[in-house]
Amino acid sequence: MKRIGSNNPGRRDIVRAVLKAQEIERHKIGLELHDNINQILVSVRLYIDAIERDPQCRNDLIATAKKYLDLAIAEIRVLGKRRVMPPKGFDLKELIDELVMDMNDRTDTTFSCMVPDDLAIDDDLKLNIFRIVQEQIMNILKHACASAANVTIGHVGKALLIKITDNGKGFNPSIRRKGIGITNMINRVESYNGGVLIDSKPGQGCAIEIRIPY
């Protein structure tokens, strides 16, 4: 009988880490589908039921139902984009600008962004920076109730500096939150020996400052 598997503890640890990362990703997708898209589609169903009960309001209710369907389509499109890796040699500034413009087209929160044109970092770090910005933008949309947010990326010496602020409802950083967005962001930063500073209080918005050596 042939034994299948590895006796190498290091290899087993790597396999466990990969499997754990996959489970976390599946959990995130499940949360997105349940908390965002499912709730939007439930709203559409409620408006359709209302049309059946009150045909006189048909036009207004149909218009609102269409608005929610468009929102569900946009959420699915964003969810798909978040899972697709950008092409090799992608422009970080262009990608973040596109993300910000997309958000401004479909939300009440106004995003602004400043990324230097001459940011020379490798693709792996660029991808992680993009995911960090993307993660926090989603956090702002889901939880902050902000009217404005700002993303700034720059560098001092050999350190990359990222600051993401919003004027939303804020939170207490010392209280454990149910979501995994900020935890994922911190894990990405720490994997590059970087640091994260979160400055937020209830009712006073949020400012996240990130420093990553490169």
What would your notes on this structure say?
The chain folds into two domains: 1-84; 90-214, Heat Shock Protein 90, CATH 3.30.565. The protein has helices at 9-53, 58-83, 92-106, 123-144, 181-190; strands spanning 110-114, 148-156, 159-166, 195-200, 206-213. Mean pLDDT is 79; it is low at 1-6. Strand 1, helix 4 and strand 2 (148-156) form a beta-alpha-beta unit. With 214 residues, it is α+β, with helices and mostly antiparallel strands. It contains five helices and five strands.
Q: What's the structural blueprint in terms of helices and strands?
A:
Layout: H1 9-53, H2 58-83, H3 92-106, E1 110-114, H4 123-144, E2 148-156, E3 159-166, H5 181-190, E4 195-200, E5 206-213
Helix pairs in contact: 1-2, 3-4, 4-5
* Count of folded domains: 2
**How do the SSEs run, as a string of H and E?**
HHHEHEEHEE
Binned, the helix content reads 55-70%
The largest sheet is: 5 strands, mixed
Q: Give the averaged pLDDT, no decimals.
A: 79
> Rough shape?
globular
Which structural class best describes the helix and strand composition? alpha+beta
Distance between the termini: 50 Å
Strand arrangement, major sheet: 1-2-3-5-4
Strand content: 15-25%
Number of helices: 5
Instruction: Briefly note the CATH topology name of the largest domain.
Output: Heat Shock Protein 90
For the record, the CATH architecture of the largest domain stands as 2-Layer Sandwich
Please report the total strand number as a whole number: 5
Gyration radius over CA: 21 Å
Pick out the low-confidence regions: 1-6
Assembly state of the chains shown: single chain
CATH class annotation of the largest domain: Alpha Beta
| Annotated CATH homologous superfamily of the largest domain | Histidine kinase-like ATPase, C-terminal domain
